[in-house]
Design goal:
- By secondary structure, the chain is α/β, with parallel strands linked by helices.
- Helix content is 47%, strand content 16%.
- Strands 1-2-3-4-5-6-7-8 form an eight-stranded parallel beta barrel, surrounded by eight helices. A five-stranded mixed sheet has the order 12-13-14-15-16.
- α9 packs across α12.
- The protein is globular and about 60 Å long.
- The protein starts with a strand and ends with a helix.
- 49% of the residues are buried.
């Protein structure tokens, strides 16, 4: 099982990026991903890799590429893996309904296959792997129009790319099926595994709940989705995505893997639609990881509606609080505002960690309300499409305010955006 994380530095800042990579590897990262938004970052990536290798750090490096096939092709000759997003590699997501005939749909897939060939050829020459990174929030209009905004749509998007890779005899592939919704992420991942088995193929699967947030809530959401799948025997690489310094992600990811090795689904007692789990575990994060993995598994398989935890190592109030956190992580029962918050990367140009903290301080008292705190435009509007309100990072420290999918401001300062959010939320909840 390989644990990975992603930098949130400006990739062009070679010194800062190398320093952060060092910290991530020291914290247990076995693979490091950096964003490469344009051609100008390609040379920086060469220098980052060279400096890390000169220091004896041989951790594989992944280039994260969106929108620009030329960047992916350039990076394929530099790094060990290139992550591409089928939702924006050729197609786009504009939230438009496309009524394509079967012939038109097939022609669109063929254009994508032709555009992918140069990348696959370069990867074959250099021994570079590809991660096909399917994001629920950035499925292209063509896929959503035909299959809906569903786990099955994610599966179909992945299968299209696996077919393209197979056509070109390229098999050094990893696939990820990510969503901020734990159940969607689990259904899509299991659906892809079953689809691959039906087709007689098997590729490694990367697991992650995207935009999970921070703190106990972020860890619980990640552990519920990733842990449940690991209990099913599904998954080869993992990332716990947190809106925190990236070196915070890997220690908990390793603890989650440890937790899954120490438990089995039968450790939880299912009584009708309620799960009970009792263990006197003194390590809070290990207890959290075990409880979350079992909750996610029970939610997926038994459609539970309640949980009861027991742990004599912690006060009763803390036990009851964790129950609420886990129920909310799986969206079984909402006891406070849900924050859909991305971990950020080099594309983020505002202080997202401080913004999330401010959002939580102001708006956590609205059960059932969903608020997005997104780093940039790549997955922002799509991943928080089911949020009630949110902000998406723009440039130079500015953000845009959204109400659902609708952008309601141009790029403005964060403090101004928070004021507008407060007015919108007050109007919705009747607190004016």
């Amino acid at each position: 099982m390989v644990v990975q994380s992603m930098t949130n530095t400006d990739t062009n800042d070679v010194a800062a990026s190398v320093t952060q990579c060092r910290r991530m590897v020291a914290a247990g990262a076995q693979m490091v991903r950096l964003t490469v938004p344009s051609m100008k970052e390609v040379e920086a990536m060469r220098r980052i890799k060279a400096q890390l290798r000169d220091e004896g750090i041989d951790t594989p490096i992944v280039a994260d590429v969106h929108f620009n096939p030329k960047v992916a092709e350039a990076m394929a000759a530099v790094v060990e893996k290139v992550r591409i997003n089928p939702g924006n590699y050729v197609d786009k997501r504009n939230f438009s309904q496309l009524d394509l005939s079967d012939d038109e749909y097939a022609a669109s897939v063929e254009r994508m296959a032709l555009r992918a060939k140069p990348l696959l050829d370069i990867c074959k020459r250099h021994g570079t792997a590809i991660r096909i990174g399917i994001n629920h929030g950035s499925l292209c209009d063509r896929i959503v129009s035909r299959y809906g905004n569903t786990p099955n749509a994610m599966v179909q998007s992945a299968i299209e790319w696996l077919d393209i890779c197979g056509r070109h005899d390229f098999h050094k592939v990893v696939v990820s099926m990510k969503s901020s919704n734990v159940r969607t992420m689990m259904e899509a991942t299991v659906g892809l595994k079953e689809a691959m088995e039906t087709r007689g193929c098997s590729y490694p699967l990367h697991l992650g709940v995207t935009e999970a947030g921070n703190g106990v809530e972020g860890r619980a959401k990640s552990a519920a989705g990733i842990g449940a799948l690991l209990l099913l025997g599904v998954g080869d690489t993992v990332r716990v995505s947190l809106t925190e310094p990236p070196e915070n992600e890997t220690p908990f990811a390793h603890k989650l893997i440890q937790a899954v090795r120490e438990i089995k689904p039968q450790d939880a007692e299912i009584n009708e639609d309620r799960m009970g789990y009792s263990i006197d575990e003194p390590d809070f994060e290990l207890w959290l990881a075990k409880s979350a993995a079992l909750t996610g598994y029970a939610y997926y398989h038994h459609h539970i509606k309640d949980i009861h935890l027991s742990n004599a190592c912690f006060p009763e109030s803390q036990v009851r609080d964790l129950e609420k956190v886990l129920l909310q992580a799986c969206r079984i029962r909402m006891s406070k505002t849900e924050f859909i918050s991305c971990p950020s990367c080099g594309r983020t140009q505002y202080d997202i960690q401080s913004a999330l903290a401010e959002m939580k301080a102001r708006f956590s008292h609205h059960p059932g309300l969903k608020i997005g705190v997104m780093g940039c435009i790549v997955n922002g509007p799509g991943e928080m499409a089911d949020a009630d309100f949110g902000i998406v990072g723009a440039s130079n420290g500015l953000v845009c305010v959204y109400e659902g999918r609708r952008r309601v401001t141009q790029a403005i300062a964060l403090e101004e955006a928070l004021g507008i959010m407060e007015s919108l939320i007050s109007r919705r909840t009747g607190e004016e």
